[in-house]
Input
Amino acid sequence: MSKGIEIPSCKCERCGYTWYLRYPQKPRVCPSCKSPYWQASSDFTNELNIDFQKAQKIIKELSDKVDEAAVKQTSWASIIREGWQRMFETSELPIMNVDRILAGGFSVHEWFMNGSKISLGLAESVAERFVTMAVSSNIVKEDVIERAKDLLEWRRILEIIDQDTAKVLGLVWFADKLSTETTYPETEVLVQENVWQLLEKNLGKKKDELITHVGRIIEIIDETNKGVTSWAEVIRFA
Output
């Protein structure tokens, strides 16, 4: 009696998925979670599990926040404000050449030293545009912020930014802010995947459609402000 052919199998130590090999070479990534570290040690797996638990808490917080925003628009203002501020600060504000900064009456030192304050002012202006009652009483209005808006032609840009763009970038970067508590890229990807599910559900549009739309808005702004909107050129893990 002939023996059956034994087909070698692999098990991912990160997500637990088991699969059979079609080729003799060692797999580069796990076909389920796409991790290149599928042979990681049990200690590493435990750390990842802890990270995934953190991710689940973040996902629940995001879901609760968006559910609340569906009936309370002031919650969308909070998401937009925090998300856009995170986006600006992470991107070091719209990247501009030194000549333009100087022409706007700023020194390079003043521009970057006030980055956090300007980021908050710009973010609040986006939230105010769509949910005025939520932030108008608390919006930061200082000379350095108003000067930065003039330099960036920010009031004109606000006329181009629509509600979907404000919400997409707001929620994506709000999630990024919460994800600073996590460690591994797989965890961050998991959070961002859930962000897109929330956006699809609440905006009634598919992910690809939303990405295309945001990209088109950026192109319109960039037609006359090359480089001003570099902060929005990449939607994380799109």
In short: The mean pLDDT is 84. The chain has eleven helices and two strands. The radius of gyration is 22 Å. The first helix runs from residue 42 to 71.
